[in-house]
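Study both lines:
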Amino acid sequence: MTFMHTILAAGAALSIAIPILIHLLLRRRRKPIMWGAMRFLLEVYKKQSRKLKLQQFLLLLTRCLVIGLAGFAIARPLLSGAGITSGGGRLVVFVIDDSLASSARDASGAMAMESFKAQARQVISAMGAEDSAALITLASPARAIISPPSTDLAAVRGLIEDLEPTDAGADFPGAMTLVSETITRATEETNSPATVVVLSGFTEGSAALARPLPPSLGDLAGVRLIASEPSAESSDNVRIISIEPLRSVLLTRGSNPAAGGDVQVTVTLERSGQGVGQSAVTTVRVNVASGADAPTGQPVSATARWAPGETRTSIVVRGLTAPGDDALSAGGVIIAEIDRDTIAGDNEFRRPVGVRDVLRVGIVAQRRFGRGPGIAQLQPGDWLRLALQPSDDAPIEISDIDPSTIDASVLGALDAVFVPAPDLVRDDGWDRLARFAERGGMVVVSPPPDATVHLWTDAFIGAFNLDWRLVREPIAAQSLTLSGETDGGTNADGVLSMLRSEIEDLARPVSVEKWLPFEEEPAGVEVLLSTNDNRAWMVASRAGAKSSDTSTGSGRGLIVYLASAPSLSWTELPASPLMVPLVQELVRQGVGIAGGSATAVAGRTMIVPAGAIELMGPQGSLSIGSGGSGNTVPPVRERSLWRAMDRSGRTIGVVAVNADPEAGNTNSQPEESVQQWLAGSLGGQGDEASAAIASGSMSWLDANDAGASLRVADEGSPVSFPMLVAALILALAEVVMARWFSHATRDKSAMAAIPAMIGGGSGGGGS
């Protein structure tokens, strides 16, 4: 048995000796004095001696127990140390916030992380030698730093001191799951009482109260949850949410990069804190770097002016210089910065962009030889070639691909592929096109103009694993024209964003005579152009190759479907002013979108460029597929730049990891709401959470003495109170027994026997 107050326990043990000493002193032998009636008293004493010894022993034992129980109860025994409830002391699981929110600085410049460490030190100081501790951190994905628990509290303290803020968001659900697993494994061997100590500021950026915590601790008996009090004040913080370049691929040919002013970006900012109600000014500095190198040019500055109450704004930055030819292999990086404030990690944002000298596009159609036909005899492939290369200096190179012999090596050198003759593509050709899209390519498919029954749609939809249903026979249209308006409004974002101001005027005069529409418009597609009766005519969707050796749903690849063949027998589009800007923008913007975002969020899975087998960065190297799958790698918790390397060791792209934009929200949250949210992990939301709070299973740490919360738990132990009650009962019993066993009451039968004995002796003498 161990005690929280060992000195009091030792004093209680010594106090037991007091009644023993008194008993021994009272039994000291005295010199006997003989007198006449002694003989009769000795005979009575001999008859009562056994009874008297038993009475004296019971009194001595009772007095020792009274003193011992009272002393030990005050010393607060820990029965777990004696093996009554377990084989060790208490279990304390620390859950410490090391997300981006923990780097927030207060008015004195101290980080929130330092406060969490100080509270953890106080809790450890209140723990006993046989107690054990586990450590779990919140930065997404949550990690179990110490699990199973350790009794080496000095080592636990050292690991806590070494914690540093990351740039990831907080993963409370994952952390609570790890807590449950840690306690479950620990209690399989021992039955130690468990206390979970959660240290966080619980700002909106770290604790998402709208998403309830899983009741992972509800099935664990006797678990207490103690948390640091939520931040009372909201510090002002501005964070960069995103950078969106005007074009996702920068072309160096024909754009005259030396003249400057080639790159235009939109920077989106958000702010939080007490100063949101006031007007403010934020200066944004933007620069462009080649590959993963530091920027070499001068940054371009722009000013964001906040109106009172405004929390989100976007500003356009113009006049940036495009990267030079040294960026063609690795790509470029756009870097935006703002002045340092409460949280430094979200004051910088990096956005890789593709850089090409030209875009390489393939056309899957039968190639014409000889002199070109007249305009009426032009085939869809001919119209596409004219739209892709309207002039000799257009930065697009065209490759002709035979539909019957689509080769993977040819596709590997292309950025996009147009398929105006899908009926001539074999099944293996569709599979190669699907893998091409999965690696980050764009595939544009349109119906063949001469087919009457379109059976090719099954192979197309099956290869790309699309949930589409197209009609089998083309439909003749009457009074049908194109429209740039969709259910989501004019194309303000996405593939045709550059045409948003003029696409409606360009599309309205274009008539449609024949088309191959969807039986029912599929979900999850971006409608680029529709008909005047609001039916999808041109859509874009992410690729999902049906192949066992590739990963689907990775956010790479783009499939575009035109419901009409680019032929004058189907639509007037090829001869309209819309044709060239539509095809040009489809390629220039679509290729960048198809390549997938090269921007990752700290703490979340990264998507890497196609063909990469390794990432090289400041933290070393990451092998693609080690812990991830396909073209993804495990999360990185710090903002950083990574070079994507192919099998030959060549840099083929850049991946930027930025701070989690949601984690920088510094708005404080009501204490009652946070407490209800945390209590949900003890068994559920609503009444269950309220019951956990009312029972004391969820409480706050003392802001001045975090260790006091752990000591209060011992004062409420069910062991001390029963011992005090037992001591009181024994004390009352001792009073009764002392009175009963004393000679204050005489045994009348024994006293009556003495005169009889005396009288009988005299009478016998008289006879």
Remarks:
- The chain has 17 helices and 34 strands.
- The chain has a mean pLDDT of 82.
- The first helix runs from residue 6 to 15.
- The chain has five domains: 2-27+36-76+720-760, 91-229+672-702, 236-351, 359-367+376-594, 598-659.
